[in-house]
Write a structure and sequence with these properties.
The complex is a heterotrimer of chains A (412), B (563) and C (318). Chain A is mainly α and 412 residues long. Chain A is 79% helix and 0% strand. Chain A has 2 domains: 60 residues; 264 residues, MetI-like fold (Orthogonal Bundle), CATH 1.10.3720. In chain A, helix 4 packs across helix 6 and helix 6 packs antiparallel against helix 13. By secondary structure, chain B is an alpha/beta fold. The relative contact order of chain B is 0.10. The N and C termini of chain C lie close together (11 Å). Chain C is an all-alpha fold. The chains are: A mainly alpha (412), B alpha/beta (563), C mainly alpha (318). Chains in contact: A-B, A-C, B-C. At the B-C interface, helix 2 and helix 5 of B face helix 10 and helix 11 of C.
């Protein structure tokens, strides 16, 4: 029996007794069941297993403290209304916000934070960590930490872009379908049924196998992007113009111009293969967004105030903007977070398979793949970018969970 | 009638709290209640009075989001507030039973009715399965359910609402409890069905000498059922007395006002001798996509400045008629004329001015007003939309409208609908309709979701506005008291057909169409002996569904020879 | 009963149509390529004669619709032509791998489905307790983690540090069944972790949703004990959503398997697909996609049919 083991059990048992004494039923149950589990773990896994439990508990306590402090910080700086909302946030949500905040800072200020360049080779392959390199070097001798920071920027930016595109198309279609109903609703619903019948990862692989090779050039991606933007824009134009021919003419002219400018701007920011990736993701996820938005908006359009507005002769665009959207913002925001998680995991998965973001761009998914061989030597380096992916998704999910709870008003 | 016997249930200073907006607030503020064996007590009050919460508390049960914070509930010598959960559970179903408002939702769709019936007796090992089933059939027979031997082996969705409600009463009787809580058992039913359920409940409670707490908002119903009546208001007791005394001689102002509600009656107007009807529905057939025909050859006229009440039970096609008139549901056959000229069938094809002429006020003010839009915009939007008002002119118009509906403009201008009470919301709905400056308004059950006093205020307001602006109303309702107070003409509908129509004074005088007769006679009256007299007159088996099935199709009134 | 058969038949027909539409998408997407497959095989430097010869050999000189019908006819009998990289028959290459993938998915499902339903019901019963909250955080974390993260953690501890299971799930023909289970335990466990969390949450949600129904309150007011309220009154009505959850997650297993197969170098169809995509071996890509999509649709179909069959209102019509 080492000192550690004795200390471990003393602490746990002491805390359990204290909790029991002060009638903290929940805390007692948790602590005491942990004690019981520790007995079993200690016998099977020995001291090492207990050490893992202790470290995990320490990490949990640390993140709880960080979350608590961050929530208090947010409450202090937020406006009064926001502060009232924030006070209801559980620690998990506060922790989520903290992680999102950190990743955002890392991504935005990547060049200032990272000590080395994204593709800068500074030492030998797989060099261990030293005072220069916080996390050691990767398979080409690049600084892991710098690449992790740049990865935050690249991976998150792409995922965010994909989500925004998917969301714009899907949500617009969903709102429009719910408002106008009829054949338009049917056609879109059936189309999205078909797309959703192909598993997302498989569909992504299929599309990437076709657009991934020589088609990933400036011209193709420009046309595809413009096409996507026009498709989205058509929905807006149809809602705004309805049956007016002039409205359609003006709308389409404006729309084409906007789409071209948008596609051009995107091409400056991203390279063609990344644009293809974003579009693939957008095509795959917009039906899912459509279905959710259709359901959310569907609950609103049955309300009598929508009927009253329709009978008044209001246009579809007014209905969407003034009557439906204000009543669906909360679930839609939560939905956006949820979709971001899916998109982010899909892009990370594709990169992990070597089919997503291409080297030398630093990206969390491909970093796992590049360093995967280290795992068989018991080195946790490849786990670090994987953990970063998991951490961000968990964080977003925590926040979404809280928002869903708030918006549904469920007290279960 | 009060039976002064052994005390069964004694509640003292009961306080119950509900959880809302992150804090606990009192919803029951210290109520006392004493119930003797075999006594039936009526709990009456408006929505939010806490009747149902007290009902659940009698079983030692607090719904999710509520808690019993203070006071004592003593059932047959056992204190429920301090008893353990399993002790309290042992009472439920065996000694105290519950009958819920909606039988359709309160029966589990996955099990046969009789299996749900026998669950409690088997659980408490009172009877063997077969004995319990025999007993269930016996109870079904006593409650006059058709096919008592067989009905229990059906699933809940295979049985009609009125029968299900009686089956639930039978289920409550399964263990011969000392006390049954009836929580608005007939509120969801049509008037003609309500009678048979009321009669059945009253009989069975008497037969087994069971004590009961009968919760309802309907005074006439409680007058038939209860020995004593307790009136509640916002979680507090107003007064308690025996039924007769309470009806003849209420003490508190609030109680008196409840009794006085049905006094309002607007003077009846008559059709102009010659003139074109404002709205004319001509031979309309209608159906929802893929469904059966809901309207069958419906025709009636509405003249300027007059109120036509459309009466009928659920499923009679009242609301569908309104949807045809407003253009939400284009008819399969027939047409709607406006001042003699055809109205386009779909609202999409109507001009702005045609849309403006015809406005609507809804039953549920909660869903009729967008909760995220300010009152000023809700009322201001039609004014801006149709009349193009802007800036100061618009604000003045909104103020004027708020004045019209008797709400202080400065106070309500910037508020949101969820901050208002039910009656205020309904007033905003009226103002929105008026903002369009219409000539015709469809009022779809506008008072049925409101408490009686508030409803009366709304009726008076509508009547005043009609006189001031020469509005025509189509008043859809199932409540004949409302018809009496506001209608000029009445249209009676059944199964999508107009069975009878005419001026109000003629409609309330015999001879009636048999269905109108049934409808009129089924409306409960304040007289505590009304149900007994009616059952004696008509016979126990000639009420409700049975009676409406018995209408002779060859009766001259039915064939329309005389209509 | 006629109603039910009609509904089921309608649903089956719909599934078939969707599958057909998807086969069209999968086939004609490849037609989007500039030039054609022959061009892709031979690359930019090919001579026109060589191209023409290859086109003739692959039947590319015929119109696309004819080729599609031929391909579809082959697909029905599991014949997808030859790989353009190795020249071997596609069905032979992926046939055995598909069986391996099915084995892995079944392995995971057999563990995950009962465990998650029992845990889901348990957590619903203990809702709002500390265990519920811990389970909530744990399942959320598990769902949010990419499969390769969980996979590598399992490898690190169970294979490298403790040496309990092999890190690489390669298969040999002469392995005993127990050996097989042992070898594929880690990839199966990875899948189980992801899917169980998901199913547990959805089972809990389905049951808690029902607990708000009036008939549940009625059951409570009849003195029914809490466990019986859940088992007798909530569960029979929760089957439809639960079946849905299970099917959805089995379908998810099929997708998730791709990443897990790559992590554990498991010889399944997922890895074949990834290889084919990077080598741009279109016949293999098309075949794999069609198989995945068909399985996916089949599972959803099974869920819908299951939901129809367990619905008391449909089973006992008026």
């Amino acid at each position: 029996m080492s000192v550690f083991v004795i200390l471990y059990y003393t602490l746990l048992l002491g805390a359990s007794c204290l909790a029991a004494y002060f009638n903290k039923r929940a805390a007692f149950l948790l602590l005491f069941s942990l004690t019981l589990v520790s007995f079993v773990l200690g016998i099977i896994g020995g001291v090492a297993a207990l050490r893992i439990v202790a470290i995990a508990a320490g990490l949990l306590a640390l993140s709880a403290m960080v979350a608590y402090a961050f929530r208090e910080f947010l409450i202090v700086i937020a406006s009064q209304n926001m502060a009232k909302e924030l006070r209801t946030a559980p620690l998990t949500a506060a922790f989520g916000m903290f992680v999102i905040f950190t990743v955002a800072i890392a991504g935005i200020f990547a060049p200032f934070i990272a000590p080395f360049g994204e593709a800068q080779v500074i030492s030998s392959a797989f060099a261990p960590a030293d005072e220069n390199m916080l996390l050691g070097a990767d398979q080409l001798g690049r600084d892991m930490f710098s690449r992790l920071v740049y990865g935050a920027r690249n991976t998150v930016a792409l995922a965010l872009m994909g989500t925004v595109l998917a969301f714009t198309l899907g949500a617009l279609a969903g709102l429009l379908a719910a408002t106008s109903g009829g054949w338009f609703d049917q056609v879109i619903a059936r189309t999205s049924d078909v797309i959703m019948s192909i598993p997302s990862l498989i569909f992504a692989l299929l599309m990437l196998s076709i657009f991934g090779g020589e088609l990933a050039n400036d011209t193709t991606s420009f046309y595809l992007l413009t096409g996507f933007a026009i498709l989205t824009g058509l929905l807006v134009v149809s809602a705004v113009s309805e049956r007016s021919v002039i409205g359609w003419l003006i709308g389409i002219t404006v729309l084409v111009g906007v789409a071209v400018v948008f596609a051009g701007a995107m091409l400056i920011i991203f390279n063609p293969s990344e644009i293809i990736l974003v579009l693939v993701v957008a095509v795959i996820y917009s039906p899912r967004v459509f279905r959710l938005t259709r359901a959310v908006a569907g609950n609103v359009v049955v309300m009598d105030y929508i009927e009253a507005a329709k009978l008044r002769g209001e246009r579809t665009w007014y209905l969407i903007r003034r009557e439906i959207l204000p009543n669906s913002t909360a679930p839609l925001v939560a939905e956006f977070g949820l979709e971001f998680c899916f998109v982010f995991l899909l892009i990370a998965g594709l990169s992990f398979l070597g089919l997503g973001i291409q080297p030398p761009t630093a990206d969390w998914g491909s970093m796992v793949r590049e360093n995967a061989t280290l795992i068989s030597f018991g080195d946790i380096t490849p786990l670090i970018p994987a953990a970063a992916i998991a951490l961000l998704t968990v964080a977003v999910n925590f926040v979404v969970d809280w928002m869903l709870y708030r918006s549904s008003g469920l007290k279960v | 009638m009060t039976k002064k016997k052994e005390v069964l249930l004694k509640i003292r200073d009961l306080k119950i709290q509900g959880y809302s907006d992150e804090t606990w607030i009192d919803i029951i503020k210290g109520v006392d209640l004493t119930l003797h064996r075999g006594e039936v007590m009526g709990l009456i009050g408006e929505s939010g009075a806490g009747k149902s919460t007290i009902g659940a508390a009698c079983m030692g049960y607090a719904r999710d989001g509520t808690r019993i914070s203070e006071g004592s509930i003593e059932f047959d010598g056992m204190e429920l507030t301090t008893a353990s959960e399993s002790e309290r559970r042992a009472l439920r179903g065996s000694r105290i039973a519950y009958v819920a408002q909606s039988a359709a939702a309160s029966f589990n769709p996955a099990h046969k009715i009789i299996d749900q019936h026998t669950e409690a007796p088997l659980q408490y090992r009172l009877k063997k399965r077969l004995e319990a089933q025999e007993d269930a059939m016996d109870l079904y027979e006593r409650l006059r359910l058709p096919n008592p031997q067989e009905i229990g082996f059906r699933y809940p969705h295979q049985v009609s609402g009125g029968q299900l409600q009686r089956a639930m009463t039978a289920m409550a009787m399964a263990c011969r409890p000392d006390l049954i809580i009836f929580d608005e058992p007939t509120t969801a039913l049509d008037v003609t069905t309500q009678i048979e359920v009321l009669a059945a409940i009253r009989d069975i409670v008497e037969q087994f000498n069971t004590a009961a707490i009968y919760i309802t908002h309907d005074l006439a119903v409680v007058a038939q059922m209860a020995d004593t009546i307790k009136v509640l208001l916002k979680g507090e007791e107003v007064e308690e007395a025996s039924t007769k005394e309470m009806l003849d001689n209420p003490k508190e102002d609030y109680t008196k006002s409840l009794w006085a509600v049905r006094s309002f009656e607007s003077p009846q107007r008559y059709r102009p001798k010659d003139g074109v009807p404002l709205i004319s529905v001509r031979n309309v057939d209608a159906a929802y996509t893929g469904g059966e025909k809901v309207l069958d050859d419906v025709s009636f006229d509405i003249y300027e400045g007059m109120t036509v009440a459309v009466v009928g039970e659920s499923g009679s096609g009242k609301s569908t008629t309104a949807r045809v008139i407003t253009g939400l549901l284009p008819p399969m056959k027939g047409e709607v004329l406006f001042k003699g000229k055809p109205f386009p069938a779909s609202y999409r094809d109507r001009t702005k001015d045609q849309l403006r002429q015809c406005q609507m006020i809804y039953q549920m003010a909660d869903t009729a007003l967008n909760p995220k839009v300010r009152i000023s915009e809700i009322i201001g939007r039609p004014a801006a939309f149709y009349s193009g008002l802007k800036g100061v002119a618009l604000k003045n118009r909104v103020d004027e409208l708020l004045d019209l509906i008797e709400l202080e403009p400065s106070q309500y201008y910037n508020r949101y609908p969820p901050e208002l009470s039910g009656g205020q919301k309904q007033r905003i709905g009226i103002a929105r309709a008026l903002a369009a400056e219409p000539t015709f308004i469809v009022c779809d059950e506008v008072t049925s979701a409101l408490d009686q006093l508030v409803a009366e205020g709304i009726l008076r307001l509508l009547d005043r506005l009609q006189n001031e602006m020469n509005l025509a109303y189509m008043f859809i309702t199932h409540d004949l008291a409302t018809v009496r107070s506001i209608a000029d003409e009445v249209v009676v509908m059944q199964h999508g057909k107009v069975v009878e129509q005419g001026p109000k004074d003629e409609m309330f005088k015999p001879p009636h169409h048999p269905y109108t007769d049934l409808l009129l006679s089924s409306v409960p009256e304040m007289d505590p002996n009304w149900l007994t007299t009616l059952l004696e007159e008509r016979g126990v088996d000639n009420v409700g569904d049975a009676a409406s099935a018995r209408i002779d199709p060859n009766d001259p009134k039915v064939t329309g020879a005389n209509a | 009963m006629g109603d039910i058969l009609g509904l089921v038949a309608k649903r089956l027909g719909l599934g078939l149509i969707i599958l057909l539409v998807i086969s069209v998408i999968i086939f004609f997407m490849v037609e989007l390529l500039p030039g054609d497959i022959a061009q892709a095989v031979l690359g930019q430097g090919a001579t026109p004669e060589n191209l023409a010869a290859l086109r003739k050999e692959m039947g590319l000189d015929q119109p696309a619709v004819v080729r599609y019908l031929g391909w579809l006819k082959g697909a029905v009998v599991f014949d997808f032509g030859n790989s353009i990289v190795t020249g071997a028959s596609v069905s032979e290459t992926i046939g055995e791998r598909f069986a391996n993938t099915l084995f892995l998915a079944t392995y995971a499902a057999v563990i995950a489905v009962p465990v998650s339903i029992v845990l889901g019901v348990l957590v619903a019963l203990l809702r709002n307790s500390i265990f519920d909250r811990v389970a909530n955080v744990a399942t959320l974390t598990s769902i949010s983690s990419p499969e390769f993260f969980l996979g590598y953690i399992l490898i690190l501890y169970f294979a490298v540090n403790w040496g309990m299971f092999p890190a690489i799930a390669s298969l040999r023909a002469d392995m005993s069944f127990v050996d097989l289970l042992h070898r594929t335990f880690l990839p199966a466990l990875t899948l189980v972790l992801v899917v169980t969390a998901h199913m547990m949450r959805m089972t809990r949600a389905a049951i808690i949703n029902l607990l708000a129904s009036p008939y549940i309150e009625m059951a409570r007011l009849k003195g029914t004990p809490p466990w019986k309220v859940i088992v007798r009154h909530a569960l029979p009505n929760a089957w439809a959503p639960i079946i849905n959850v299970v099917a959805l997650n089995l379908a998810y297993l099929i997708t998730g398997v791709v990443l897990v197969e790559v992590v554990f170098v498991y010889p399944g169809i997922g890895q074949a697909l990834v290889d084919a995509v990077s080598k741009r071996d279109f016949p293999v890509v098309q075949a794999c996609c069609l198989i995945f999509a068909a399985t996916f649709i089949l599972l959803n179909l099974a869920a819908d049919v299951g939901a129809i069959l367990t619905n008391p209102r449909l089973r006992h019509p008026k």
